[in-house]
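Re: that chain you flagged

S.,

Sorry for the slow reply, it's been a week of failed gels. I finally had a moment to sit down with the sequence you sent. For the record, here it is as I used it:
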Amino acid sequence: MFKNRCIRFILFITCFSLFYASEGLTAGNGNVCYILNIHHGRMTPHYTLQAALNQDKITGFDLNAIFLNSNEATVMSSAPGVGYFLSNLGNNEVYGHVHAAYFSLLFPLLTATHPVQLKLGLGPGYVTQKHDPADNPLNRALGSHINAYGQISLTGGIPLVKDRWLLRAGISFNHVSNGLIKAPNQGINTLTFHAGVDLNSDHRHSGAFAIGQNQERAQRHNFSILFAPGIKEVDEAADKKIFTSGLLLDYAYGILPALNTGLGVGLYYNDTWAHGPYSSFGEEGSPFPFQAAAHLVLELEKNPVTVILNPGFYIYKPTKNIPDFTGRLGMRYSFKNNLTLMFAVKHHWFALADYFEWGIGYRFFR
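Prediction finished late last night. Pasting the structure tokens below so you have them in one place:
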């Protein structure tokens, strides 16, 4: 009963968002482009037990509504959207399926005859099978029904029917986890090939995604500082949770009206490796609970929302038990006074969620 209610709730929120955004954009002479994709691929296991359970091929369904403002038809700009994603997770009996509603930003990388687009998506998801010590002990990947869902997609297109319809094909990386709010949580990653078509599109794709070479950004340099705390469960048996925190210092340069790139540093207080199964066996005492990392700043921006991707690596870690590579996939909301709120999944090795970050900070422009 609870499962069915959650699924219906996600579907309701998705449909409501689609309707509300569609109505709002129609009033502003905007266009709504509906994109349908079918996914097919495999789970990409990152530990031994998960590799043994990787038995079923991934088949998924993705419906995405992209909102295009006709006033930006000649600007290389990110297009926001909302979507619904349904897929199995590599083992139907142990991991089940995921239903996810997500916010997305679509960015054109190439705008010639055959456009190529990058999409970043993030939102809540519901998985039908979670870990249970008695009924589902093999599921060490998903400790709760409610999880975060993230998607990174690269898609090429072939315009059809007077350039008003588009056939699509590409590749997607999908991630599902709860950020260790509830252990166990190894997370699940899938790599899929997708193909699909635009539905009910009224605008010409090559025109809407044309590069505006004469467009200028008044403020190309931006600096941000954010405080990003989190919470995670580090000992399942003892039900032990800890608080974490991070200070993020980023610089980004606006190379295009909707694309920022730069470098950043993260300073973290994270005492995970002093507890339970994460403890540093063979090392004397608890490791120093501070770490530092450098990361690349990649941002797709559609004010006031920005989708952020920060691949990076640790430049200081007190124990060898901490993985070398870290990063985040998240979303940031900026107010008119430059106050910023952030939600992100901090991860290791682009695959294993560390914890959810809930950030607040400020942006400076030059």
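What I noticed first: The domain at 221-365 is CATH 2.40.160 (Porin).

Talk soon,
D.
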